[in-house]
Specification:
Length: about 425
């Protein structure tokens, strides 16, 4: 079924066979046999043909032949911890003590990061959402720092005849770490394949901190957490939390077209907007702040502050008794969330006698997953040269899906980056 662009999803052209009549109200048995082997076999053939038609003629995701969920990666056993950490920190001046400390965090969980399982669950959810919309497109998995490595995934795709793919990254905001570094690693994987004589192109969806699928899902999750605390009789302080960055890196977040500091600004805007929505919905007034976790690097280097633990201490000193901790900087409960927040920050709160509720990350939330599929459709339409509507909340400034020259640079080294104008 060939679709004109922008058309509604295809409707089922085959009349559904009436279901077996259910038992009547008096418990009378249904008419006829519950299953009909001939009709069942026909259904199967029809379903198969339809699937084939979809595969061949669905144009909504053209020009892409697959989606690649592109993520950070993490170790899945104790023997993988150090090789993973060395890969992540190669040439970045992270002190040895910090590496040993982070290795401890992983070993505390048996050497297994939760991130890959969470991404496999996200892939399943994306596949289900694509299927619900009758779109058949493979969803592949490629990591930057652990198996399955992005280059291996792209090589496999190329062997299956694919040459143009769309990356969905597990990172919502703008900065070197959360955007350009993904683009550099995509470029390195493309280059590795090029040296084998394989040509593969990869585009990326826009950074989605202000796509409603992400931002509104966070509004709902924070609202429900605050509602629960209010019902218990307390008025919580709202503490938003994200990954810290060197201040120098925040300074260069997004200056291809902006003034910089886009990383911290995006988080502040979203934290303010979510708080406003929660207040309006629940009819309360809430104090809120943005805090940071997972600082690394040498102590001499300034990073974004306040640290979440320091801020909890500050709030307790000022008489706060209840906190809702909202990790809006993360898309799933990976190591930073289960260790830095659910272990360390929870310990801090306990020491201080603070009641603390941690808001879930978006994870495989249906609204988030559906938003990612909308972003994929949006990017495909854009790649076909169509005029696209780019939904946004808060504000009305979508990040460009093709990054502008000089966007989010690394001040130390400059490497080729994919999915951008430079
Ligand atoms: C902004 C940001 C995100 C969010 C966006 C995104 O999701 O991408 C993120 C995610 C993640 N970071 C992760 C792990 C690590 N990050 C490190 C180091 C660093 N991260 C940084 C920033 C970010 N990181 C920075 C500025 C550094 C300093 C060194 C450098 O400039 O690179 C180090 C080295 C040791 C240390 O210094 O802590 C590790 C092991 C994992 C995997 C978790 C798991 O296994 O579940 C994930 C999802
Ligand atoms: Fe990190």
């Amino acid at each position: 079924m060939t679709l004109p662009t922008g058309a509604q999803p295809p409707t089922d052209p085959v009349e559904p066979r009436p279901e077996a009549v259910p038992a009547g109200p008096e418990g009378t048995p249904a008419d006829g046999p519950a299953t009909d082997p001939v009709a069942d076999a026909t259904d199967e053939v029809v379903a198969e043909l339809e699937e084939q038609l979809d595969r061949e003629d669905d144009t909504r995701l053209e020009p892409y032949q697959a989606i690649v969920l592109t993520s950070f990666g993490g170790p899945e056993g104790p023997e993988e911890v150090m090789p993973f950490l060395r890969r992540v920190t190669a040439g970045r001046g992270i002190p040895d003590e910090r590496l040993a400390e982070v290795a401890e965090h992983y070993l505390h969980f048996g050497g297994k990061s939760p991130i890959n399982d969470q991404n496999r669950a996200l892939i399943d959810a994306l596949r289900a959402e694509l299927q619900r919309r009758e779109i058949s497109l493979p969803v592949l998995f490629g990591n930057r720092n652990s198996e399955p490595f992005l280059a291996d995934t792209l090589r496999q795709a190329h062997e299956e005849g694919m040459t143009r793919l769309l990356a969905v990254t597990t990172s919502a905001y703008s900065s070197y770490s959360s955007c350009r570094q993904y683009r550099e690693d995509i470029a390195a994987a493309i280059d590795e394949l090029a040296r084998e004589g394989r040509t593969v192109a990869v585009d990326k969806i826009r950074q989605y901190w202000n796509h409603p699928g992400f931002s509104r899902a966070n509004v709902r999750l924070v609202t429900e957490a605050v509602r629960g605390v209010l019902e218990s009789g307390a008025t919580p302080h709202l503490v938003f939390v994200t990954h810290s960055l060197p201040i120098a890196m925040d300074d260069t977040s997004g200056p291809g077209d902006d003034e910089g500091n886009l990383y911290s600004t995006q988080h502040l805007q979203l934290a303010d907007a979510i708080t406003g929505e929660v207040e309006a919905t629940l009819g309360v007034s809430l104090e809120h702040d943005l805090t940071y976790c997972s600082r690394s690097g040498p102590p001499s280097q300034p990073w974004l502050e306040p640290d979440v633990n320091d801020h909890l201490r500050f709030l307790a000193e000022r008489g706060a008794t209840s906190v809702v901790l909202a990790p809006i900087g993360f898309v799933s409960d990976h190591m930073e969330v289960v260790f830095d927040l659910d272990t360390e920050a929870v310990e801090t709160a306990e020491e201080l006698g603070l009641q603390m509720v941690r808001v879930p990350t978006v994870g495989t939330d249906a609204e988030f997953v559906s938003g990612l599929v909308d972003l994929v459709l949006e990017r495909a339409a854009e790649a076909r040269g169509e005029q696209v509507v780019m939904p946004c909340w808060p504000g009305n400034e979508p990040r460009p899906s093709v990054c502008l020259p000089g966007c989010c640079p690394n001040l130390r080294v400059s490497k080729p980056a994919a999915c951008g104008m430079d």
